[in-house]
Write a structure and sequence with these properties.
- Chain B: Belongs to the TolB family.
- The complex is a heterodimer of chains A (about 180) and B (about 475).
- In chain A, helix 4 links the parallel strand 2 (about 105-110) and strand 3 (about 145-150).
- Chain A is globular.
- Chain A starts with 13 loop residues before the first helix and ends with a strand.
- By secondary structure, chain A is of the alpha+beta class.
- A four-stranded mixed sheet of chain A has the order 1-4-2-3.
- Chain A contains five helices and four strands; from the N terminus they run ααβαβαβαβ.
- Helices cover about 30% and strands about 15% of the residues of chain A.
- Chain B folds into two domains: about 10-190, Rossmann fold (3-Layer(aba) Sandwich); about 195-460, 6 Propeller (Neuraminidase), CATH 2.120.10.
- Classes of the chains: A alpha+beta (about 180), B mainly beta (about 475).
- The interface between A and B is medium-sized, with 27 and 43 residues.
Chain lengths: ~180, ~475
């Protein structure tokens, strides 16, 4: 008979439940991430190949990158920094890993496309990285474990000058620190 | 290479000593130059253009004479070779700014040393020369050079202006820029600007791993020098008003931060220890204050701190959103800056203490990177509506007009006299950047010569 009950959705997985703590805006924009191309790793995301056949060392950045299968990067609309449903799912996956390896720290790199002025893009990249960080924190990750850095438009991953390339470059990449 | 060490001495007493005193003497030794006997190649010394009346003015720039062809410590060679080089720099300065189409020094008669102060007017009248520039160079025993520069009105048979400068061997080009400044100012009525320097970012390498180095050069692209190695990405330099320091952004310790680079000692220090990223450095016109923008928790505000160091930074904006940049009015009383508090990048004004903030850009699209003209009458900025273009408006936001029309032009910087705007242009796909300039009419657009890719130009004031 309680009015509260229907609004409570208990989930089997902790991370999904934690999604409700995310107070950030949910964008209605659906397909902004370039689905057809696998997101490339950020510049600092040097994937370390392990000599053994067992794959990356558990808890390493290589392990993080491998486990994320693209979810280490979230994408933004032009001039926007909101965390939409796709981003929330990716960040939840990141948060899961970070909770599993609770002694690991991470840096979120914010980036922009080339169609903006240099200085503003440095501030916008910071704002995007910060939005991603805030969402991780809302999922229970300690803020002190996550730092941000903006590269503005200085480090594109897609080199063309077209909408598809720009969509790939408007991103925040999470890199864990080994 | 600091202004303190430079000894550019204006020699106004020169006419009493040289070369007037030498005038009655026997003709000076003929220059050993191969160009010394160049044949006259045409009747008219000026070029005709439909662009402006100024360009109809027939200005002849002649090879600077010397009293004795002796070796110098310059990279131009002997005094005779130096005389040719000096006049070439003067001609290039006047030609490249687009206002004039001077002739010479090649293809023109070469005045002898004794003629420098007593032009052979009939020779120039016959050639329909309106304005005549003559000069000389003399070497002193201590390696110093004395350069004289004279502007004559041929029709009036009258000297309009003269200047003399003593320079060290490494600064000979400055004497030529001073001469060009004198001619330009006397004929146009505008303030000089050639004897000035530009700080910028030199870019090399592929688009996704581009090396960005702090670099400087003279206003004509000469005397180019790199200041940083490229190990850390450098961006957005600004010369201090006295040329002693350069503020710029470096990723030196990972986080983007503003440093003040001291050109005398080649050392640098953080402008503010904040623990947060600092971006978009600017000087106050008197050099006493530094503006920077700092990002905290996703928002960015503009701060002011003493350039001498120390003191608590004062926050001038208080959100919301991104507030960035900031360019002082010439009198230091106001600051024009960029903010997206209304939802997109627009241009705002505030008093220097942060009070009375108000938006001035209301013409659609986004407006960014405002820079107040040294004359105070215009604000140059980047207008974004699809393409990025350089535009100007008056400080009340009226009279917006474009100066360029390309795919991506951004980050204007003013010439010291407020007549020319430099900016950087990025090529589609390759992302290759280069520095361009255009005058306030929107005409005379040209690319500056730089050894590698170039962005973020910052034009300093005229040197004393």
């Amino acid at each position: 008979m309680s009015n509260l009950l229907p609004t409570l959705h208990f989930s089997k997985t902790g991370s999904t439940m934690l999604l409700f703590a995310g107070a950030l805006a949910v964008s209605a924009c659906a397909s902004k991430a370039p689905k057809e191309l696998p997101p490339e790793p950020g510049p600092a995301t040097t994937t370390q190949t392990q000599p053994s056949d067992l794959g990356p060392v558990a808890g390493s950045q290589a392990d993080f990158a491998a486990r994320m299968t693209g979810a280490d990067t979230i994408y933004f609309d032009t001039d926007k920094y909101d965390i939409d449903a796709t981003d929330q799912a990716a960040l939840a996956k990141q948060a899961q890993w970070l909770m599993q390896y609770s002694n690991k720290r991470a840096t979120i790199e914010g980036h922009c496309d080339e169609r903006g002025t240099r200085e503003y893009n440095l501030a916008l990249g910071e704002r995007r990285a910060n939005a991603a960080k805030n969402y991780l924190v809302s999922l229970g990750i300690d803020a002190s474990r996550v730092t941000t850095i903006s590269y503005g438009k200085e480090r594109p991953v897609a080199l063309g000058s077209d909408e598809q390339a720009w969509a790939q470059n408007r991103r925040a990449v999470t890199v864990t620190i080994d | 290479m600091t202004p303190r060490i430079l000894s550019l001495v204006t020699v106004f007493a020169l006419s009493a000593a040289y070369p007037a005193a030498a005038q009655p003497a026997a003709p000076v030794p003929a220059p050993a130059a191969p160009g010394g006997l160049e044949v006259d190649q045409g009747g008219l010394t000026g070029s005709v253009s439909d662009e402006s009346d100024w360009q109809d003015l027939g200005i002849a720039i002649t090879t600077f004479a010397t009293d004795a062809n002796v070796p110098t410590q310059t990279n131009a060679g002997s005094t005779a070779a130096l005389g040719r080089a000096l006049s070439q720099v003067v001609a290039d300065d006047l030609r490249n700014n687009g206002l004039f189409k001077p002739s010479g020094p090649a293809g023109l008669p070469q005045p002898a040393f004794g003629e420098v102060q007593a032009p052979n007017y009939p020779v120039w009248s016959v050639r329909s020369t309106d304005m005549l520039v003559q000069g000389y160079v003399r070497a002193s025993g201590n390696g110093q050079l004395t350069v004289g520069c004279y502007l004559y009105d041929v029709a009036l048979k009258q000297q309009l202006a003269k200047g003399g400068w003593q320079v060290g061997p490494s600064d000979w080009r400055r004497a030529a820029h001073k001469c060009a400044d004198m001619v330009y100012s006397r004929l146009s009525g505008e303030s000089p600007f050639f004897d000035s320097k530009i700080a910028y970012i030199a870019e090399t390498g592929p688009k996704d791993r581009r090396m960005k180095r702090l670099a400087i050069m003279d206003s004509d692209g000469a005397n180019h020098r790199y200041l940083t190695s490229g190990q850390a990405t450098a961006l957005t330099p600004r010369y201090s008003p006295d040329y002693s320091k350069i503020l710029y952004l470096s990723y030196l310790n990972g986080q983007p931060s503003i440093y003040a680079y001291d050109l005398a000692t080649n050392t640098q220090k953080l402008i503010a220890r904040t623990g947060n990223p600092t971006i978009a450095p600017r000087w106050s016109p008197d050099g006493r204050w530094v503006l920077y923008s700092m990002a905290t928790g996703g928002r960015t505000d503009i701060y002011r701190v003493s350039s001498a160091g120390g003191g608590t930074p004062q926050r001038l904006t208080n959100g919301p959103g991104i507030n960035i940049g900031g360019s002082y009015s010439p009198d230091g009383s106001q600051i024009v800056f960029e903010s997206d508090r209304s939802g997109s990048q627009q241009i705002y004004l505030m008093n220097a203490d942060g009070s009375n903030q108000r938006r001035i850009s209301f013409f659609g699209g986004r407006s960014a990177t405002p820079e107040w003209s040294p004359r105070g009458d215009q604000i140059a900025f980047t207008h974004i509506a699809g393409n990025l273009r350089i535009a100007v408006m008056s400080p009340n936001g009226s009279g917006m007009r474009y100066l360029t029309n390309s795919w991506q032009d951004e980050a204007p910087t003013w010439s010291p006299n407020g007549r020319i705007v430099q900016f950087f242009r990025t090529e589609k796909n390759s992302g290759i950047a280069s520095i361009w300039q255009v005058d306030l009419t929107g005409r005379n657009e040209r690319k500056l010569p730089t050894p590698v890719g170039a962005s973020d130009p910052a034009w300093g004031p005229v040197r004393p």
